[in-house]
Design a protein that fits this description.
single chain, alpha/beta, Rossmann fold, Dihydrodipicolinate Reductase, domain 2, Alpha-Beta Plaits, 3 domains, six-stranded parallel sheet, about 25% strand, binds L-homoserine
Length: about 400
């Protein structure tokens, strides 16, 4: 018998309890031990819920109980999660968490404590909800140099962009529906401004490249400025607008960014819609692989957390190595990255042609149906720095989106 404690009885915490109770037979078989939830920690009471029998309000009860071998942290936020997780590891308990803020900020330190104490700090659910990606990066893809990770890592924004595309809705309206469906975080800014995806790509990049990628240094742009008109142009060109979180290694340069992109139909991320997430990985030997599935939601996320509990049970006194050192990875400034850009400007293509071509070179113009007083164009490939200086000196700009 292996006793565990669950910190937080919110959406994911109640999902963890539900998954363990529903699938106990197969989970115990896979773990090689019976897993028993001894405590659930929450500040609140849940009258009438069977969890009341094991509910505690004081973390010290869990910390001081030597029978608790695994702590599941699903509270979210950095504090008090960080304090509880660190104390648990120092007290000889393995930790499984879904908390991307915690992992992105303190991952290397917590992994090092776990390594020194022959324990595990596991975080499969912190990226991509129910999609296995952390374990594959740590084990299945280790024969390769990872060259690129590009993902749709936020279900809420993918849902919003899919709704805008399918229904021609504006951003605010689609956000409201996402909130009603419970996809958005408590503070929707974390989703729509790209902060959630930024932490997730920081975690994946740190694991892929082995050194610590500081999420505060990742250029991050959200989707709140994307309009129904932008999407109409994208559709006319045969592209989809997606919020991509991407990191790339080009020789000794490492780039990372989060921003909306126009994705061509030839790219596997083009067809990833609604609340689904996908992570495209390029290695120097295996080529391309893509992981796809439910990126958010109670049960998919809980399933990933419980898979970590099974792994931690199978490796109770044996650290599963992962390569994420505390040495900081220096990112190359995004200004130096080269790509094409789509721009919308006021006025017809005829009225803009000469001055736009004089500034940007040989652009392709796009006129979308139903938009008579404006046009769009796609630039040749140029650096971000070059593009932004040209864009700032362009009159009548409406919006710009990068091309993948
Ligand atoms: N709000 C997040 C999302 C939840 O929409 O993807 C999963 O981290």
């Amino acid at each position: 018998m292996v006793n565990i404690a669950v910190l937080g009885y919110g959406t994911v915490g109640s999902g963890v309890v539900e998954v363990i109770r529903t699938n106990s037979e197969s989970i115990n078989k896979n773990a090689g031990h019976d897993i028993r939830i001894k405590y659930v920690l929450d500040l609140r009471d849940f009258p009438g819920d069977p969890v009341e029998e094991i509910l505690v309000h004081d973390f010290d009860v869990i910390l001081k109980d030597p029978e608790v071998k695994i702590v599941v942290e699903v509270m979210g936020g950095v504090e008090p999660a960080y304090t509880f997780v660190k104390k648990s590891l120092l007290a000889g308990k393995s930790v499984c968490t879904s908390n991307k803020e915690l992992v992105a900020k303190h991952g290397p330190e917590l992994l090092e404590i776990a390594r020194q104490k022959d324990l595990n700090f596991l975080f499969e659910a912190s990226v991509g909800g129910g999609i296995p990606i952390i374990r594959p990066l740590n084990s299945s893809l280790t024969a390769d140099e990872i060259l690129e990770i590009t993902g749709i890592l936020n279900g809420t924004t993918n849902y919003i962009l899919s709704q805008m595309s399918a229904e021609g809705r504006e951003f605010d309206e689609a956000l409201k529906t996402a909130q009603e469906l419970g996809y958005a975080e408590r503070n929707p800014e974390a989703d729509v401004e790209g902060y959630d995806a930024c932490r997730k790509i920081a975690i994946l990049s740190s694991l892929a490249f082995g050194d610590h990628v500081d999420y505060e240094e990742i250029y991050t742009e959200g989707i709140s400025k994307i309009t129904a008109a932008d999407i109409a142009y994208a559709k006319q060109m045969g592209y989809a607008v997606k919020l991509l979180a991407s990191s790339k290694r080009e020789d000794e340069n490492y780039y990372a960014m989060v921003a909306p992109f126009l994705v061509p139909p030839t790219h596997p991320l083009f067809a990833v819609n609604d609340v689904f997430n996908a992570i495209f990985v390029k290695g120097n030997v295996f080529g391309d692989v893509m992981f796809y599935g439910s990126g958010a939601g109670k049960l998919p996320t809980a399933s990933a957390v419980v898979s970590d509990v099974v792994d931690a049970t199978k490796h109770l006194h044996c650290n599963i190595m992962s390569f994420w050192s505390s040495r900081k990875l220096e990112l190359t400034k995004v200004d130096k990255a080269t790509r094409r850009f789509f721009v919308r400007v006021r006025g017809s293509a005829d009225a803009n042609r000469d001055k736009v071509r004089a500034l940007y070179g040989d652009v392709d113009f796009v006129e979308a149906e139903g938009f008579s007083d404006e046009c769009g164009f796609v630039t040749p490939a140029m650096t971000e720095a070059d593009f932004h200086s040209k864009y700032e000196s362009t009159e009548g700009t409406l919006n710009r989106i990068r091309l993948l």
